[in-house]
Design a protein that fits this description.
The chain has 492 residues and is α/β, with parallel strands linked by helices. It has two domains: 257 residues, Glycogen Phosphorylase B (Rossmann fold, 3-Layer(aba) Sandwich); 209 residues, Glycogen Phosphorylase B (Rossmann fold). Helices cover 44% and strands 18% of the residues. A nine-stranded mixed beta sheet has the order 5-4-1-6-7-8-11-10-9, with helices on both faces. The chain is globular. It starts with 7 loop residues before the first strand and ends in a 21-residue tail after the last helix.
């Protein structure tokens, strides 16, 4: 891997773009989500490749769109064509009806259909075939997230030798939950085909190793610190904790822009003489939004001095709207918001402003700057980058972060945040009361500590730590070229 031709090839379920039906057919828009937010600034103009599903079911017609999208992104994009059956059983089925709930400790929501597993294997092989086609022997294949845990195994079954690493962006569950998975041994053995397996927290790494001990009594661990070597027979795999982060400087710089400052002031004018508490979440049952609304309702009931003096702005980004469970959650949120506003609204004050839509970057950053309090209370989360984004954008260092104990970010941010159990409605209610009454000195001390952590452990720190563990290199080995314009062969 020391040859000069080494490139980073990122492989994820989705490309960092999304397909949108326009008046003239398919159009490509910039993607959203934590992975894109994190990796896009690192990959830009470094000569790398990103492989993934486009989000449609007709990728063979996208070649003409990939070239301009690649030029705009600053790295080459290659789509993996998936059929409607692939999407149904691999993505909505195994990935999101099995792995997603199981890894978030919600096993009662799992649907263990055997055909889901078979299609998961088939699609992982498709990803491996496209990766083989567009990568070379000296490239480093960096596979991301739970959709593709079997991809290194698929590469080996194809007879392809590549240096591969894997990073899991969601939590890894404890053994008593993971062992309910019918294909537990196959998943663990597939992960051991990677040279490096990365997790968000030390707890996730510990859970993974405990699960390995259930399928093999001969597990040995070598080394100490964030990265250790797991030895299973003659196989040696490095396993580490690498908490993902954000481009701190970019968020702080953009939050300081005149456009964001003006928008934040405009929003402030519409919400005068009160503290704004902000929640920003994708529509998902793991985010703990109903529990948060119940806690806000409890706070208004038990602490009447908050009435008229605090407003919850809850942003919910639409997600998986065609899935019945998510439709039910959306309906429940509308019901709760209507119930709370119906009970407490009075002239000049509405307790909850509910936004069910995506925000553009400037609007999101304006809300971050506006909010005196951020409340991020997932039932379980791999990391939760919203917490870090809020801190980076809190330029005056006067905000308060209320954070779930079960967010991966808690491992880094617990010293500055107010920590809560998202299942404890009264505990969250008390945290809202505490944050509202917190004096400026304590606010500043806590937020300054939080911003220092996020600043020093930013996305470039994360990538460097992973690459050093994987290749004994860092980003300096992949220098950015400002005028990088890749020559992109049209891919079928």
């Amino acid at each position: 891997m020391e040859e000069p031709g080494t490139r980073i090839v990122a492989v994820s379920n989705r490309l960092p773009i999304r397909l949108v039906h326009g008046p003239d057919g398919w159009e490509i828009k910039r993607g959203a989500g934590g992975l894109v937010t994190a990796l896009a600034p690192v990959f830009r103009n470094r000569g790398g490749i990103w492989i993934g599903w486009s989000g449609g079911t007709n990728d063979e017609d996208l070649a003409g769109l990939m070239e301009p999208a690649s030029r705009e992104a600053g790295y080459r994009l290659y789509p993996v064509p998936l059929s409607a059956d692939d999407v149904g059983d691999y993505y909505y089925g195994f990935s999101n009806e099995v792995i997603w709930p199981l890894f978030h400790d919600l096993q009662t929501r799992c649907n263990f259909k055997p055909r889901y597993w078979q299609q998961y294997l088939n699609v992982n092989r498709k990803f491996a075939e496209i990766t083989t086609k567009h990568s070379g022997e000296t490239d480093y294949i960096w596979v991301h997230d739970y959709h593709l845990m079997h991809m290194a195994q698929s590469l080996k079954e194809l007879g392809i030798e590549r240096n591969t690493g894997f990073f899991l962006h969601i939590p890894f569950p404890p053994a008593d939950i993971f062992m309910k998975l019918p294909w537990r041994a196959q998943i663990l053995r597939a992960l051991l085909e990677y040279e490096l397996v990365g997790f968000q927290t030390m707890r996730d790494r510990k859970n993974f190793i405990q699960c390995l001990r259930h399928i093999s009594s001969g597990i040995r661990i070598s080394g100490r610190g964030p990265v250790v070597t797991v030895i299973v027979g003659d196989k040696r795999v490095r396993v580490g904790a690498f908490p993902i982060s954000i481009d701190y400087d970019a968020f702080a710089r953009d939050a300081e822009s005149k456009e964001v400052a003006d928008l934040a002031w405009y929003l402030h004018e519409a919400l005068p003489d009160r503290q704004v508490i902000l929640g920003v979440d994708r529509l998902d049952y793991t985010k703990g939004i109903p529990e948060r609304l119940e806690a806000f309702k409890d706070a208004l009931s038990r602490f009447p001095e908050l009435q008229g003096k605090i407003t919850l702005v809850q942003v919910v980004v639409p997600s998986r709207e065609e899935v019945p469970e998510y439709q039910m959650l959306r309906a429940e949120l509308y019901r709760l918001v209507g119930e709370i506003n119906g009970q407490f609204t009075r002239s000049g004050w509405v307790p909850i402003h509910y936004l069910y839509r995506s925000l553009d970057r400037s609007e999101l950053l304006a809300y971050y700057r506006l909010a005196e309090i951020a409340i991020i209370t997932p039932l379980k989360d791999g990391m939760n980058l919203v917490a870090k984004e809020y801190c980076a954008c809190n330029l005056e260092e006067n905000g308060v972060l209320i954070l779930s104990e079960f967010a991966g970010a808690a491992a880094q941010l617990h010293r500055g945040a107010i920590m809560v159990n998202p299942y404890d409605v009264e505990g969250m209610s008390n945290a809202i009361h505490q944050a509202f009454h917190m004096d400026q000195e304590e606010r500043h001390d806590r937020m300054h500590r939080l911003r220092e952590v996020v600043h020093h452990r930013d996305i470039f720190w994360w990538v460097n730590n992973f690459l050093k563990a994987a290749l004994a290199k860092d980003l300096r080995a992949f220098p950015a070229v400002e005028d990088y314009m890749p020559e992109i062969p049209l891919a079928s």
